[in-house]
Design a protein that fits this description.
Layout lengths: L5 H9 L7 H12 L1 H9 L5 H16 L6 H12 L7
Helix pairs in contact: 4-5
């Protein structure tokens, strides 16, 4: 995984081994199910981690600032929370 070698990863996940525990078999089934998506993560360097962080911060502000009278005040509070950071590209 660290070297992003998809063929080695596929060989490891798709190989049959009778000596593994039922819990590991369940984990391998999940890895097989999402193999195309995992292969894409090896191929591309894009991630939605930054966007998820923005969404999390907005939800946190929404919980804390319950009761704003109008959307403009709520929007201003969100923009203030990001304090000159880029919100969207």
């Amino acid at each position: 995984v660290q070297h992003k070698n998809i063929s080695a990863y596929q060989t490891l996940v798709l190989s049959e081994n009778k000596l593994i525990s039922p819990q590991m078999k369940c984990s391998l089934r999940t890895l097989k199910k999402y193999l195309p998506e995992i292969a894409n993560s090896f191929k591309y360097n894009d991630s939605n981690g930054h966007l998820e962080g923005i969404n999390n911060k907005i939800k946190m502000i929404k919980r804390i600032s319950f009761g704003y009278r109008n959307f403009t005040n709520f929007r201003n509070r969100i923009l203030l929370g990001f304090n000159n950071k880029r919100v969207a590209s």
